[in-house]
């Protein structure tokens, strides 16, 4: 199966369950990547219980060290406001070879009020 999805905020890996810290009024840009899928995993985003749309359709690219597998990447941009402080952002990777058919990774939005 593909690797578990992982989140990146401003190019830095966000360990599962950690915070994505962003200033109130700014945009939180978060990327989700799942490596080594064949076919690539399908990525979906949720903020709380609501499915949210990515900035662009996900991009799938072949892995340089294993060209028969794919890395899937998707990016969301979330306007940070105080109502969203503490909200859970979740990336769900869907793939038939995962035992539960999908694997999620979550981070919590930490909105810093100015």
TrEMBL record:
Domain (Ig-like): residue spans on this chain: 5-110
Entry's Gene Ontology molecular function annotations: cell adhesion molecule binding
Membrane topology: Single-pass type I membrane protein
Gene3D superfamilies, A to Z: Immunoglobulins
Region of interest: Disordered: 1-20
Tagged with keyword Disulfide bond: yes
GO cellular component: cell-cell junction; plasma membrane
Locations listed in the record: Membrane
Main location: membrane
Keywords: Disulfide bond, Glycoprotein, Immunoglobulin domain, Membrane
InterPro entries hit by this protein: CD80_C2-set, Cell_adhesion_signaling, Ig-like_dom, Ig-like_dom_sf, Ig-like_fold
Bias (Basic and acidic residues): 1-12
BP GO terms, sorted: cell-cell adhesion
Source domain of life: Eukaryota
Keyword Disulfide bond in record: yes
Protein name per its UniProtKB record: AAEL003577-PA
Organism of origin: Aedes aegypti (Yellowfever mosquito)
């Amino acid at each position: 199966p593909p690797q578990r999805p992982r989140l990146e905020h401003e190019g830095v890996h966000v360990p599962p369950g950690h915070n994505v810290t962003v200033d109130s009024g700014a945009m939180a840009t978060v990327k989700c990547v799942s490596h080594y899928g064949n076919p690539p995993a399908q990525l979906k985003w949720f903020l709380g219980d609501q499915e949210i749309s990515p900035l662009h359709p996900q991009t799938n690219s072949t892995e340089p060290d294993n060209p028969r597998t794919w890395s899937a990447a998707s990016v969301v941009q979330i306007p940070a406001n105080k109502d969203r402080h503490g909200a859970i952002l979740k990336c769900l990777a869907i793939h038939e070879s995962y035992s539960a058919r999908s694997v999620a990774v979550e981070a919590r939005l930490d909105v810093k009020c100015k």
